[in-house]
Design brief:
single chain, 313 residues, alpha/beta, two-stranded antiparallel sheet, 10 strands, 17% strand
């Protein structure tokens, strides 16, 4: 179940009621700005949050929320739907988001895009991000169709990625292909995404490894997938799920981190690798409808993740 989006009005209403421990103080730029909570990680890995659940917040309210949770920054959607930044207005809007996060000692660590090929709009988005010092972005989704051979489609995906990698090289930014679960997603099996990028420069195109999606699709084989992609990692995504019986079928249900199927042992493996990029929390489960509930879940998931990472330090 997808989490309910938070509205800026709801946050301000909660804050004005004095729920300091449960919601956010509205931004007061000239006087009583929030005191930033210490960033989530000070050394090897930065822990960030995907801002999809709170895209209705202003730039300043987003920065306040990130500081309150304790994330180092955000993965910011720059796409048509469920977005913080309209791609057509990227030159105007993205700098404002970067400025708001920077004022809180945080950063826009990466952006999420609809980009699946080289287009004038894709170049505008990536050029703007690169100029702002953003060095990572998530590639858009590609899908297999049922009436064509898989190898033929994979070759077409590789051609697209080669063209995008060249653009990335020119602009000094790295794309990342995510493994997303689903019956027709390119990247769901993981090996196909790895095969598509393995002959391209890692600095231009890497992989976004989602341990939740990998566990959902891979069952017990996710350690093999993790080992396969490790040299190409651009970002690690963390979310959890469990299998639920619904009628006669079993379906995956997203849930808080530590309450589902993903194994903390993944992070032990990650700790033995050379990976030093961001770890990004995703929240796709139902977190309730109030700002206090959302904030509590953000913090609890971060606390669980910090505990797992502390155990391998």
């Amino acid at each position: 179940m997808e989490t309910t989006r938070l509205s800026r009005r709801a946050f301000l209403r909660a804050a004005s009621a004095g729920a300091a421990a449960a919601a956010l103080t509205p931004p007061a730029r000239a006087s009583a700005a929030l005191t930033p909570v210490a960033p989530a990680s000070a050394a090897r890995w930065k822990i960030i949050g995907f801002s999809k659940p709170f895209t209705s917040l202003s730039y300043e309210a987003t920065a306040d929320l990130v500081a309150e949770v304790g994330w180092d920054g955000i993965e910011c959607p720059v796409r048509k739907n469920a977005t913080h930044i309209d791609p057509e207005r990227v030159e105007e809007q993205l700098p404002r988001m970067v400025e708001a996060l920077t004022s809180r000692g945080r950063q826009v660590s990466m952006i999420t895009t609809d980009i699946t090929g080289v287009t004038p709009l894709a170049e505008r988005v990536l050029r703007t991000a690169s100029k702002l010092g953003i060095r990572r972005y998530r590639f858009g989704s590609l899908h297999y169709v049922a009436n064509r051979p898989i190898p033929d489609q994979l070759e077409e995906f590789k051609a697209r990625l080669r063209d995008v990698a060249q653009l990335n090289s020119t602009l000094g930014i790295q794309g990342a292909v995510q493994n997303h679960s689903g019956k027709d997603y390119f990247g769901a099996p993981v090996w196909d995404a790895w095969d598509a990028v393995r002959n391209l420069p890692p600095a231009d195109l890497g992989l976004a490894f989602d341990i939740g999606h990998a566990t959902l699709e891979g069952g017990l084989s996710w350690p093999l997938q993790a080992r396969l992609v490790e040299p190409r990692l651009s970002v690690v995504y963390v979310k959890d799920f469990r299998w639920e019986r619904k009628g006669t079928a079993w379906e995956p249900e997203w849930c808080p981190v530590g309450h589902g199927m993903i194994s903390p042992s993944f992070f032990t493996t990650l700790g033995k690798s050379q990976y030093q990029g961001p770890i990004c929390q995703h929240h796709e489960y139902d977190m309730g409808r109030t700002p206090a509930e959302h904030l509590r879940h953000f913090k609890q998931d971060l606390q669980t993740l910090r505990g797992w990472l502390a155990s391998i330090a």
